[in-house]
Amino acid sequence: MLVIKADLVEAMVAHARADHPDEACGIIAGPDGSDRPQRFVAMINAERSPTFYRFDSGEQLKVWRAMDDADETPVVIYHSHTATEAYPSRTDISYASEPYAHYVLISTRDPEQHELRSYRIVDGEVTEEPVRIVDAYDPE
């Protein structure tokens, strides 16, 4: 299950709406080993496409180095679908390379409301998981 704060969900949805009709993408980093998304990082879709996303390689290198320096990991990897449901495409599945990440998809096909779903993608196998949106994380 993905447990995520409401303000992080709002930030992902706002980014998806802002980049529409192109797909938006980014990550939410969290402390290594915690499975707790905390630091929102909107990234550039290098493809600038309504049907495909790819992190800019230079930006991705900087973001991943910053996470390494801060002992963080990409807890959430998100992107939007602008004309289809929030389900990973074959391309999304083939590019999923972080086995411990929650892959969050936001569909912006409906201008009035969004659809947000989360998946685990490991070795090409897609498993949808529940999402629990909270105001604050429980103390550890």
What does this molecule look like?
With 140 residues, the protein is of the alpha/beta class. It has one domain: Cytidine Deaminase, domain 2 (3-Layer(aba) Sandwich). 24% of the residues lie in helices and 35% in strands. It has three helices and eight strands. Strands 3-2-4-5-6-7 form a six-stranded mixed sheet. A hairpin with a 7-residue loop joins strand 5 and strand 6. It is globular, with a radius of gyration of 14 Å. It starts with a strand and ends in a 6-residue tail after the last strand. The model has no long low-confidence stretch (mean pLDDT 96). This is M67 family metallopeptidase. InterPro entries: JAB_dom_prok (IPR028090), JAMM/MPN+_dom (IPR000555), MPN (IPR037518), VirAsm_ModProt (IPR051929). Keywords: Hydrolase, Metal-binding, Metalloprotease, Protease, Zinc.
Biggest sheet features: 6 strands, mixed
**Helix/strand-derived class?**
alpha/beta
- Architecture per CATH nomenclature, i.e. the level-2 architecture: 3-Layer(aba) Sandwich
CATH fold-level label: Cytidine Deaminase, domain 2
What's the mean pLDDT score?
96
What's the order of the H and E elements?
EHEEHEHEEEE
| Oligomeric grouping of the chains | single chain
Question: CATH class, please?
Answer: Alpha Beta
Major β-sheet strand ordering: 3-2-4-5-6-7
Measured by DSSP, the beta-strand proportion falls in: 35-45%
Q: How many structurally independent domains? A: 1
CATH superfamily: Cytidine Deaminase, domain 2
What radius of gyration results from the CA coordinates?
Answer: 14 Å
Strand tally is 8
Uncertain runs with pLDDT below 50, 5 residues or more?
none
* Number of helical elements: 3
Distance between the termini: 17 Å
**What is the share of helical residues?**
10-25%
Shape: globular
